[in-house]
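Q: Structure tokens for this one, please.
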Amino acid sequence: MKVPMIRWILFLLISVTISCSQQEKPDPKEFQILKEAYLTGRLIVVRSILEEKSKQSDLNPKETILYLKTLFYLKAWNEFLNVWKQSEVRSPELILLYYKVYLLGGQDSKQKDEELGHLLDLLIVSPEAMLLYLRLQNFQISHSEKKLFLAQVKGFRNSLDVLQKELETKK
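A: Here is the predicted structure, written as tokens:
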């Protein structure tokens, strides 16, 4: 009695695995066309295609990033936030866009600690992240944070000076 039941369960597991692995693979040509449309400024077209696709099935990470960027540049703040909540893609670029939505869209800036942590991770590499953080904190920071930020600004300037010298010598 147990052996047929085990075979039946094994059969179900194998068939589910096979059916899941045969799900629709993203078409790289279709994504390339969407990306080119995005780069040429056809944001409304990209938005409508990705919106329809998201209703039918989940978007892959590249499509999600493209969709969020499109919504940002179309100033569709509420839709951006809805897609953001459903998405698990958290690239550095999207994190910056997320906080810009709060600042530009006049949204209530109640962020999750995890999302604020992502922004804090970017402070050491992005002056824009630093500015966003300061604006989110209404420029109310402690003296020690101010000293750290000023030191970081100095580091950014040094890096830019080195970059400028390198570019001038390559002419």
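A few notes: The chain has a mean pLDDT of 81. Residues 30-89 form one domain.
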